[in-house]
Design brief:
Structural class: alpha/beta
Strand content: 5-15%
Radius of gyration: 24 Å
Distance between the termini: 57 Å
Order of helices and strands: HEHEHEHEHEEH
């Protein structure tokens, strides 16, 4: 009799263990890592450094927006109304050409887009990139670098120009530490490296 009780308890225990360890339990499943793409335009290298840090921490892929004609320091002279950047940002309807290829964004869950702020706006090379892509109803997280501007006005303009994209409010990242980037990135449900 005792033997039958012990055997029946053993069978019940084995069934309980096998039902918990089958991998169908949500607690046993590992969360899927979100695929991250970090797109950036950088005229001086400052935004590039931030983009590289985001990609490293978020384990994302990098894509650089490359102007067909590189910007010189004279092109970037914001005090000269005849400089290339001034003309592009003040009334020119032509977008700068880029040599970067179109990115297949279909496999990415999260897209960051970074740029320096020029006259409170994203440089027009960002428009060139967006116009080449099929961003559709995607969620895009802008980030920027600037010596004096905030990011809000540039994001508002992008929202207005591309209302089909879900734009995050973005973040100005002039001198972000790894700890600061980790905190910001984790807020989007992205597992980051330590």
């Amino acid at each position: 009799m005792i033997r039958k009780i012990i055997i029946s308890h053993a069978i019940v225990m084995m069934m309980a263990v096998s039902s918990c360890g089958g991998g169908n339990n949500a607690e046993n499943e590992k969360p899927k890592h979100k695929r991250v793409l970090v797109v950036y335009f950088s005229a001086t290298g400052k935004t590039k450094k931030v983009a590289q840090d985001i990609a490293r921490i978020a384990r994302g892929d990098l894509h650089e927006i490359i102007p067909a004609k590189p910007y010189t320091s004279a092109d970037l002279d914001w005090t000269n109304e005849k400089s290339r950047s001034y003309v592009e940002m003040h009334g020119s309807d032509e977008l700068p050409e880029t040599t970067d290829s179109i990115v297949d964004i279909s496999s990415y869950d999260v897209i960051f887009i970074g740029y320096p702020i020029w006259w409170d706006q994203a440089p027009r090379a960002i428009n060139t990139f967006i116009d080449k892509q099929e961003l559709g109803r995607r969620y895009v997280i802008p980030f920027a670098t600037s010596n004096g501007s905030q990011i809000g006005e540039s994001v508002d303009s992008l929202r207005s120009e591309y209302p089909g994209i879900y734009w995050d409010s973005g973040k100005l990242l002039n001198s972000a530490s790894d700890a600061g980037l980790m905190k910001w990135i984790s807020g989007f449900g992205i597992k980051y490296t330590k």
